[in-house]
Protein: TIR domain-containing protein
Organism: Umbra pygmaea
Amino acid sequence: MELKKAMSEPRCVWSHSQMTVFFGYVLLCWVLATPGTAYSLENCTIVNTENVTLDCRNRKLGAIPADIPQRTTSLDISTNLIWKIEKGDLKNKSMLIKLRMDSNQISHVDDETFSDLKALQMLDLSNNKLTSISDLMFLGLNTLSKLLINDNLITTITLQSFQNFHNLKYVDLTNNHLGQLSSMKPILQLPQLNNLFIGENKFTYFLSSEISNKSIALRNLDISDNPMTFFNITDNVFPDLQYLGLARCGTKDMEWNVPDRSFLSNVTSLSLTDVRLSLEMMSTMLQSFTTSLAKIVIYNLLDEHAWPLINIACQIPTLETLQLQNISTVSEKLLQSCTHLIDLNLEYSNLTELHEFSFRPMKQIRRLILRSNQFSAVPNATRNLTTLQILDLRNNSIQSLCCLDFAKLTRLKELYLNNNQITDIKHCFFQDLRALEYLDLDSNTIQDVGDTFKEGFQKLKLLNLNKNQLTSIQPDSFKGLKSLKVLYLSYNQILYMQPGAFQGLTRLTDLHVGNNWLVSEYPLTYSVFKGLKSLQTLDISQNNIYYSTDKEVPSIFSTLTSLKYLYFDTQGPEGEHIHHIPTHFLKGLRSLVMFSAERLFLNSLSKDTFLYTPHLEVLNISNNDFRSLSPELFQAIPMLKELHVQHARLLSLDFLILANLTQLTYLNVKLNEFTEINETVIHSVPALNYLDMQDNLLSCDCMNAWFIQWLKNDTSTQVVYAHDLVCRFKEYKKPTKLMDFDIHTCSEDFGFFYFISTTSVVLLTLLGSLTYYFLRWQVVYAYYLFLAYLHDTKHRKRPAPNQYDAFVSYNSQDEPWVLEELLPELEENQGWRLCLHHRDFQPGKPIVENITDAIYGSRKTICVITRRYLESEWCSREIQVASFRLFDEQKDVLILVFLEEIPDQQLSLYHRMRKMLKKRTYLSWPRAGEHTETFWLKLRMALETRDNDDEENLLIGPRQR
Ligand SMILES: *[C@@H]1O[C@H](CO)[C@@H](O)[C@H](O)[C@H]1NC(C)=O
Ligand SMILES: *[C@@H]1O[C@H](CO)[C@@H](O)[C@H](O)[C@H]1NC(C)=O
Ligand SMILES: *[C@@H]1O[C@H](CO)[C@@H](O)[C@H](O)[C@H]1NC(C)=O
Ligand SMILES: *[C@@H]1O[C@H](CO)[C@@H](O)[C@H](O)[C@H]1NC(C)=O
């Protein structure tokens, strides 16, 4: 029955204008040759259409997709199952600049695979299974500047492998199995190389003479995590080196030998984390950097090494930054020599307290990081650091503050107190912080802000109070924050915000009050948001705001004339849904550009909802319960560019036809319930370039034929995952791929699209109509005669082999009889080979040609005649071609089977048929009655007659005229 559905469009009904159009189509197809390449890719999404950027991540791909456009500039195929790259895989991708293939299973790369990538700058092959880099592997990558091959299994790099990489600046070989330092030679000799990462390999020594005797332009070198026993620099090969990473590098008895202090004289940054050398060797090592070192990172210092090493390090006059993660105690003397430090980091150290004078020597300290420790109060040591600009105390256990905690920190700009247990804040805590711009109190247990922010804080730009326990916002709470731009109040328990809550915040641009307990019982009114004249973003998602349908509320946002982005997702009392947005909800928001109203379980939106927001460009109304949307809704927002209506139970997209969304470029209608999408809908959104319509209930129906054709040929709209779209036949629940649905079984007028605009067709139509009107039959006969002639000349030399015993011509509505009665009897019982259009016609070939071929390729043509068959006069074109064959080849090929009795007078309407019947014999199914065996026997005899048999033998049947 699958077939029946596919054929439900009466296939044979061609009006005469369609016929003329069809001639035009054939002509134009011939003229136009090939259509453009389709835009929707099988295994990738085009995320940027200008600089063609492809995202093919995470699709379980086993190979590089074959349909990557030639003009692609950026391609990401990471996180797939590719295990080898073959030579043709990246052919002609000469515009590719960035190629990511990390996190695959690649163990083999053909030689010269990348040779067409003449513009490639970045290649990421990290996290694969490569074992070696051979001479020809990277051949041709002359423009490459960044190469990532970390996290592979590489043991060898051959000598010639990095020839001609004139621009290569960055190579990451971290975590491989390299052990021979000499294998680095081809890389280190690259003229532009700045960054080389060879950590986590198996190098046991580092000997500059083995790599090079002349200077190398390297700036950053990381050799961390190698089991070094020997580090020896004998020449000034790294005059430009700025960073040297030695973390976890070396064994207890590693020898450090840099005889000349000028050799590493430009190194400014050094990582010595977990370097476990003897104290003497560590000291020697530090002595090699005394001229320029500005930053040292030493995590996990051994207790006994701490003071001596920090003492040496801090005596380097240029040292500014010291990072000492995981240090067990900070005594009074530990940092005594660090007088010029600007930046000190003591994070993740489990510190519970600090000596009061720990930081006293640091007269220039600007940044102090004490995060992720165990402080239960702000350490006294931080007071009076008058130069401090940034103080980070996040992730501690601070429970309360006191008025002296930040005394004299008059230059402090950023204070991080997030992730503590502060329950209470007062104005005096922060009174000296006159320069404060950024205050982060996220994730504490503050219940009330009281008077804290009513004055002072002249320069505060951002205040984060997310994830606290605030229950309400009183009037004028933030009155003093004249410069505040961003205020976070999300994830609290705010039940209501009083009128005037945000009074004074005249510069505020972003207000976040999402994820609170705002309820409809304390309605939001315009006076809550009064005074927010600069507000651009308002997030009140995830609250409990509920509007019943019978009540219109006063508009809330009428004062927010600058608001551009409004988030109102997920509302309603717990377990219930909002279902309704008041008609005048958006009144006043004349600058609104984006509105998000997801997950409200709305049943409808009033058609006047957007009357107030004429500049709306992005609308997200996904996860609602619409079923249908009114086109009028959209007529007020003609600038709409992006529309998200995912998962909204839409039964059709017809609302787009009258919505007049001429600017719409992005449409997401994933997970809805529409079964078809037709030409008119697509034409109504002419600017569309992105369409996501996965997971709908498309039917495998000729109604979708035009759409399928469009999917394959359109060059301006990307339909994401187009090749994975499925459709269903009504009777068969099992979905099949939409693209595989054979639209050739549908009428051919989808081709209309291609040439409707061409005047030649108009002319042809005119001409054809006239000719048709006046010379109907002559034209038709001439046409078929012409076809027959063509066919004849084509096949004269090589007579078409009789591929089939019979071609069966029938109207689609008679298909059940053909499939259930005729086919089993003739094919299974009698063993004939039949040609049926839905099954055996070659897709892609014009129908008329298919018919001609079928008739000429079959010994006989069986016409299954009913009134419906006759009514569609073009249906009898099979009869016509067949009778031409009779005329042309002097062969009788026609067998007529009547499925119903057709009285004489009715038949007389079809004078051609009648004429034929006067001469011919036919079989009648109704007459056969119970005795179908006789009927089948006669049909067998008719099929058995050979071409050279006497014509009389063909004349069989119950009734002779
Ligand atoms: C897309 O991926 C599938 C499955 O990996 C594969 O069979 C198909 O050939 C790919 N298509 C193209 C165009 O590469
Ligand atoms: C550097 O010079 C030494 C001694 O002359 C030599 O043994 C070594 O091979 C040279 N290294 C390179 C990389 O040319
Ligand atoms: C559709 O929009 C265009 C411009 O966006 C406008 O010119 C035209 O009048 C509108 N048509 C209707 C039917 O509203
Ligand atoms: C497309 O759908 C609309 C609305 O259902 C209908 O009016 C129109 O005739 C359809 N167009 C085609 C080409 O089927």
Remarks:
- The longest strand covers residues 858-865.
